[in-house]
Design a protein that fits this description.
Shape: flat
Number of helices: 3
Number of strands: 0
Distance between the termini: 21 Å
Structural class: mainly alpha
Largest sheet: none
Helix content: 40-55%
Radius of gyration: 18 Å
Strand content: under 5%
Length: about 70
């Protein structure tokens, strides 16, 4: 197991024990580090959908190369 896999396992277990997702735990850790460094918080990311004409026949797996995980 490499260092990144080890770190992710610990993070996942820590989040699970507190009933949080890994993403929630990462946001909390990064927010704490940001405050400790005295940095101004970054604005939230805003996502927008682009409207296109026609329909696509691509699957999620073709786009992301995974099984929808």
């Amino acid at each position: 197991m490499n260092e990144l896999e080890w770190l992710f396992r610990i993070l996942r277990e820590h989040a699970r024990r507190r009933g949080h997702s890994v993403a929630q735990k990462l946001r909390a850790i990064l927010g704490t580090a940001e405050k400790a460094a005295g940095a101004e918080p970054l604005p939230p990311v805003r996502l927008a959908m682009a409207r296109t004409s026609g329909s696509s026949t691509w699957s999620r797996e073709e786009i992301y190369g995974d099984d929808g995980r």
